[in-house]
Each structure stands twice: as C-alpha cells, then as structure tokens.
C-alpha cells in the first residue's frame, strides 16, 4: 500500500534541501567549536543557551549587508564574547570561523539522500558558501543536481532571493518542487512565501526551545524526525 506521504507528493520531481541543521548536525558542530573558547575565558553555558545566543547574533548579521559566512562566524563570536565580557584572540576567531568542515553529518543523511536520488533530482539551497558546502559534502558524499549557496546569491535565508535564484536555475514548475528543511525561520517561511510545499525535518523533537535558529511560525505540509523516516515515507510505493 502506498503511504499517504508518497501519494501526497507524487507529482514532485525535485527536492530542494537545506544543509545545516537538516543534513549536517550544525548544533553539535557549533557547540563543540564554541564551548571550549568560552570555557577558556571562564564562561560555561548550557548547550541550548549557547545555541540561542549564537542564533540571535547570526540571524542579525545575515540580515545586514552581505558578509561571507566565515566573516559571520567571526563576528558572531565577537558579539557573543562582548555579551560575556571578554575579547577572543585571533587564534580563537580563526579556529571558530574554520570549524564548519568539522561539523558532522547526521548518521541518516547519506543513506537517505542516496535513496531519494533514485527517484528525485536533488538541489541544495544553503546559507553556507561554496567552500564550506564542499567541505560539508565530503561527509555526505552526494553529487547534487543543483547547488545554490549564499555566496552565489549574496544573501542569506530567510531572504526570498535565495529561493528565487534556485527556482530560476531549475526552471521547473513550483508544484513539482518540495522543500525539505529543519529551520522554520530560515526555510519554511520563505519557501512557502514563494509557493513551495515544505517538509519539516524536526531534528530537535522533544528538546525545548529552538536551538540555533530564531523562533518562527510556519505550518509545514508534513513533518518527520529525520531524513531516514522522510525518505522511507515518500519512497513507499
């Protein structure tokens, strides 16, 4: 029997997918890179408190004049440090701003993507830049059909521009595209604003707060706790 998810999205030919938070465990990566720096300066924050502080500063920086993601990481650390009353040194700024390549993939990401690739074209829409996505994709090992980065669009999600650029490249009717992502703020709100259906990969299920993303209100078309369960449902026929 075909699953409800497979029937509901039977007309889709392309999956547009977020990277950080959806495929790559950026919360673990951020905490692992940032926590030792804060502790060196005498500050120990709970992981969720640290992530929420990071989310506040990152989203503010991404909404301003375009900066590379490396610059955003450096300035986010500067602002967090100012909040806590210390100044990071150059080595700490360098270490944090180069940590993205060490952020791990979720254990289910690669297998799910390989299965989905047999049925759909896969497109990346990421707030990372070209270099960082290439480093992260070494953990995934997937050849994507389209890759749209913030570096290419000169803007960061939730800007609609990132989605307009991706849609322009794909030249595919919007009713054939399904956007798959963890962040309601960065992805679901703007994707729905440009007319796409969305699937929420709720990686934080059961954990309080919003982690490394600001609070946002959206109603995704479907919800799964990870990429594996999503792939199983949409490929069930």
From TrEMBL:
SUPFAM superfamilies: HAD-like. InterPro entries: 2-HAD, HAD-like_sf, HAD-SF_hydro_IA, HAD_sf, S-2-haloacid_dehalogenase. One of its GO terms (molecular function) is hydrolase activity, acting on acid halide bonds, in C-halide compounds. Gene3D superfamilies: 1.10.150.750, HAD superfamily/HAD-like (3.40.50.1000). Pfam families: Hydrolase. Keywords: Hydrolase. PANTHER family: ACID DEHALOGENASE, PUTATIVE (AFU_ORTHOLOGUE AFUA_6G14460)-RELATED, HYDROLASE, HALOACID DELAHOGENASE-RELATED. This is Haloacid dehalogenase, type II.
